Amino acid sequence: MKTTLRLFATLFILLFAVNAMSQIPRYSLDIQNGQIVSPYRITFDIVLTHTDATQFEFAGAQYFLRIPLSGFGTFSIGTGTNSAYQFDSSGGHPISDFPQSFWPRNPITQISGDFVELGLASNILPGPGNGLILAQGDSQLVMRMKLTSSTPMNMSNANFTVNDSCDYHDFYGTTTRVYAYIGTDVSPITRCIDHHVSLLFPVAQS
After folding, report:
1. DSSP letter string, 76-87
2. Are 121 and 106 in contact (CB under 8 A)?
3. CA atoms of 186 and 174, how far apart (whole Å)
4. What are 143-186's pLDDT values in tens digits?
5. How far apart are CA 36 and CA 44, in angstroms?
6. Which residues pair with 36 in a beta bridge?
7. Torsion over CA: 52, 98, 89, 147 (sign)
8. Alpha-carbon span 96 to 64, nearest angstrom
């Protein structure tokens, strides 16, 4: 009898876990469309795509990238106008497909070991039922970013990586994280395997 009860309990837990997993939406987060504006400035896009049929009520995300500390460029460390990393704009307005309340915030550059981290804090989470519904296959430009160097950039060393929670243990939480509303709960849905960098900057030939 006890063995049967344990078996039923195990099956119940497994079914609950499978059901919970089936409600977690899949996505792709891509760093792409790199452009060389000048020897001192580049731009690129942060793009989020809903990739499965599960409802995706986007709550918010923080985005962190890493570039080499040396050999690529010379970048101002800080936040706001003191940061080398800022929103790109057109006509004075940031370039994004997202409603303004879902824009990431506070671009920051900071040194972490042998890297410069490029960070964006999350938007303020809006509460369940007020998230951004992303349709399957829908690609949204989260934000077009610009990075400015005080010396000419060496594009052969433009080695961007996504600073992922799966790859680094960082006390300060400077890792890329994505959140969605599942029912009435805000849930982390970060999948590092679905984060991609495809910045193909041209390299000058000697």
Report:
1. --EEGGG-SEEE
2. yes
3. 19
4. 999 999 999 999 888 889 998 766 544 444 689 999 999 999 99
5. 9
6. 42
7. negative
8. 17
